[in-house]
Write a structure and sequence with these properties.
This protein is an all-alpha fold and 197 residues long. It contains 9 helices and no strands.
Length: 197
C-alpha cells in the first residue's frame, strides 16, 4: 500500500469515528482536521468534498459492523444458535464496535433521515444487508425444520433489529447496560419460541 493510500485510509477511519460520535452535520472541517492531524488541503488531496468523505467513512463503518457479525457466526450451526449469536454479539459488546460512538447504522439512520439523501440510501442498503442476513437464517431454519413453518422471516428481522437498536439507544442515553441485558434475555426467549417443538 502506498503512503497516499495509507493516508487516505487513516482519514476515512478517523472521520468514521468522528462522524459516528458527533454526526455528519455536527462535525466541522476544523473537527476533521483536528481528528486527522491534517490541514484542509491534505484532506482535499484525497476527497473532493466533506460529502465524499462522509460516504467513504460510512461505507468503512458499515463494513466493520458487518464483519463483526460474520466473524461471530463462523462455525455456528443451526438457525437458533445463529440467531442467538447475533443477539449475543450485539448486546454483550456494544463497546467493541471498532468505530467509536455505537452502532453506525443507528446513528446514521437517525441523522440522515431528511438531511442527507445519499447517506440515507447507503444506510438503507446496509440495513437491508443486516435484515437479509437474519431473514436467510430464519428461512433456512424453516427449510431444515428447525423453526416453525408459520414464522415470518421478515418479522423476525424487524423484531430483533428494532429491539437490539432500541436497547442500545437506551443504554447509551442512560449509561446503564441493564437495557441491553433485558433486551437480550427477551430476545433469547423469543428466538427459543420459534423452534419446532
Amino acid at each position: 500500500m502506498s503512503k497516499a493510500e495509507e493516508t487516505k485510509n487513516r482519514i476515512i477511519q478517523q472521520a468514521a469515528n468522528l462522524f459516528n460520535q458527533q454526526g455528519y452535520a455536527g462535525s466541522s472541517m476544523s473537527d476533521i482536521m483536528a481528528a486527522t492531524g491534517l490541514k484542509k488541503g491534505g484532506i482535499y488531496n484525497h476527497f473532493a468534498s466533506k460529502d465524499e468523505l462522509a460516504i467513504a467513512a460510512f461505507d468503512f463503518a458499515a463494513q466493520q459492523a458487518s464483519q463483526r457479525y460474520l466473524w461471530a457466526l463462523k462455525g455456528k450451526r443451526g438457525a437458533i444458535a445463529r440467531l442467538k449469536t447475533i443477539i449475543h454479539t450485539f448486546s454483550t459488546s456494544p463497546d467493541e464496535f471498532s468505530i467509536k460512538g455505537g452502532c453506525p447504522l443507528l446513528n446514521t439512520a437517525i441523522e440522515s433521515d431528511d438531511t442527507h439523501p445519499v447517506l440515507r440510501e447507503k444506510t438503507q442498503t446496509a440495513m437491508y444487508q443486516w435484515r437479509n442476513l437474519i431473514h436467510q437464517i430464519v428461512k433456512k431454519g424453516i427449510e431444515r425444520e428447525e423453526i416453525q413453518p408459520k414464522v415470518d422471516p421478515d418479522a423476525v428481522a424487524t423484531i430483533l433489529i428494532s429491539t437490539m437498536e432500541g436497547s442500545l439507544m437506551l443504554t447509551r442515553l442512560y449509561g446503564d447496560r441493564i437495557h441491553m441485558q433485558r433486551a437480550k434475555e427477551h430476545l433469547d426467549h423469543y428466538v427459543e419460541g420459534l423452534q419446532v417443538s
